[in-house]
Amino acid sequence: MELFEKTGKIALGSRLRYMASNVTDEAARLHELYQIDFAPKWFPVFFVLSEGDCKTITDIANEIGHSQPSVTKIVKEMINAGLVEDNLRSQDKRRNMVGLTKQGKALWERMRIQCIDIDHAIDGIIQEATHNLWEALAEWEFLLEQKSLLKRVQEQKKIRESKDVRVVPYQAEYRQAFKSLNEEWISTYFEMEETDHKALDNPEEYILAKGGKILVALYNNEPLGVCSLIKMDHPEFDYELAKMAVSPKAQGKSVGTILGRAIIEEAKTLGASKLYLESNTILKPAINLYHKLGFQKITGYPSPYQRCNIQMELDLRNS
Amino acid sequence: MELFEKTGKIALGSRLRYMASNVTDEAARLHELYQIDFAPKWFPVFFVLSEGDCKTITDIANEIGHSQPSVTKIVKEMINAGLVEDNLRSQDKRRNMVGLTKQGKALWERMRIQCIDIDHAIDGIIQEATHNLWEALAEWEFLLEQKSLLKRVQEQKKIRESKDVRVVPYQAEYRQAFKSLNEEWISTYFEMEETDHKALDNPEEYILAKGGKILVALYNNEPLGVCSLIKMDHPEFDYELAKMAVSPKAQGKSVGTILGRAIIEEAKTLGASKLYLESNTILKPAINLYHKLGFQKITGYPSPYQRCNIQMELDLRNS
DNA sequence: AGTAATTATATAACCAGTTATGCAAATTTA
DNA sequence: TAAATTTGCATAACTGGTTATATAATTACT
Question: What pTM did the predictor assign?
Fold first, then answer.
């Protein structure tokens, strides 16, 4: 199929289905070649039953990775074909124990020969090819079990989108965003306090004029994250990292990380040696982010905020 | 799936189907991730329409390798979703020209980004894996087009079965087979002649007693092929290769070749230096076999058989 | 020009699987 | 020990495809 070269790997599913149906069609004709009256779809059930004892419908389904109703249907067909018997010995009357009939066992003996021929034929193709399809499938089953395709694509999306996040200094046009993004999370988890209102209603005066800094993260020119450094009058700490807020719309774009790293760089260029922050352990993603950025938990400083139950610091002289 | 390791490569079809369904399921969830209201099965149609102009149902079906009714259904669904318009300009009123709507084109632009992420994600798996599934599929498509799986298995069957063919010297128990196998082909294509009756009714006297040899090919102890060397009283030729017959039941087991090689070996151990045979060009498979065994066409010797229109020789001193 | 053959599509019926559901038997819990 | 839950299976309805077939429009052939 030429199409697959054009679409790219997004058509992997279609390509697999296409190959599967080709192979299955040929398998059907193979049974004719060996003059065996056998539907290819019976094979997995037939195989597990050939291993010996009788089994329940559900056990077979689990072993072959089909749904239970699918096995029920196949077993019914195989009973009609005389290959399989059901309701074999079991005291549990819900269970339907299924096993091969004499005829089924005899057919299996003939089938094994056919399997060997097919195995050789497929090995032949593997020899001819430079890429081993059989091994590739086994490997992919493993790799996708480890980390699903969905997860892998999600990661790619994040990488791509985070490339489109720009961090810019605060300007008057972002005052509304600075306020609403912060109000959103504060009023969701806590109550707005007096100190919040002061800083959010007039950041120019309460943050910038006092030597602080505000950064805004833009995605498609829309402000989706904000963050500020507030100048502290403290023997140890130069700035407080505060009023960090990221819109829920921006999830999965690493906006928090990008903004955090940018504000730390900003602090460094301002000549800061130690940063301080206060938060609440209820905000798990935020705490995780601070940790990732290098902040360490500290204790014993007074806070103007009621909601604060954790304090952290970042020593910039280390890095 | 552990099963696939146990069944061997005969389950290739199942394994492919299993992987295809896994990948397709994840694809469906991917569209959710990107908040696109889109059924994965629409993708091939959507893709070919995105390439530009509108197309007929049948053209689309051919391009994506689906049946025409499948495309009819998909197009209908996409019309309901507002992505596609039908009955676009065409003077031929049988044709249903289909193209993307504005909305469809807009969706394609968003989708392209998604495709890139998926491509990257799949490339990532390919990097992790040692066997390249994508390339393997492309290669297999090519190799199976060159020679179908059916044909390849047929070849393996032939190789295996020809190993079970045993060649043994003539014994009285094979007299009936020697006669009937020869009568079968002679009376199908020609008339039985006087010379035939003599040799077939009493091979001990007319062939063996005169220093000739008869070999019988057995498959599962059943005589399915016969062949004889008849001592010639001739300055150039030592023996005539004659009364070679293979049952139609034995087709695809290389019985003819095996028997031919055996009788040539026999002639060598008898010290023969040149073999002779007569046949008819109507028997193409036989002539091919003689050729394969090394016989060369010659002319100008008298024959007791009416049906003979070609004569061949094999010089044993060459090999 | 009229008939026959071909083409493009829609529709119906099927196929190999799925999920959803209901029922009876068995097991667990109170 | 009775009630609640779980288990095993059959059945029904759906899905994404298929083949077979009917019909209308077009083209080819007297």
Answer: 0.72
Per-residue pLDDT of A188-242, as tens digits, reads: 999 898 889 989 999 999 999 999 999 999 988 899 999 999 999 999 999 999 9
pLDDT of res. A307: 86
User: Are B45 and B140 in a shared domain?
Assistant: yes
Nearest residue on chain B to A47, alpha-carbon basis = B7
Instruction: Name the phi and psi angles at B228, rounded to 5.
Output: -140, 155
CATH number at residue A299: 3.40.630.30
Number of domains in chain B: 2
Query: Does residue B86 share a domain with residue B187?
Result: no
- Å between B291 CA and nearest CA of chain A: 28
Verify that B124 and B247 share a domain, yes or no.
no
Residue of B17, B120, B139 with shortest CB distance to A131 = B139
Interchain pair A19, B16: CB under 8 A: yes
Distance A55 CA to C28 C1' (A): 25
How far off is chain B from A133, nearest CA to CA, in Å? 5
Angle at A273 between CA A269 and CA A277, to 5 degrees: 100
Mean pLDDT of chain B, nearest integer: 90
Same domain, B138 and B250: no
Per the structure, the residues numbered 30 to 59 in protein chain B that have their CB within 7 angstroms of any atom of strand C are: 56-59
Beta strands in chain A (DSSP E): 55-56, 84-88, 97-100, 165-169, 213-219, 222-231, 239-246, 274-279, 296-298, 310-315
- The per-residue pLDDT for range B3-27, each reduced to its tens digit, is 888 888 888 888 888 888 888 888 8
- pLDDT tens track for B57-69: 999 999 999 999 9
B36 chain-A contacts, CB cut-off 8 A: none
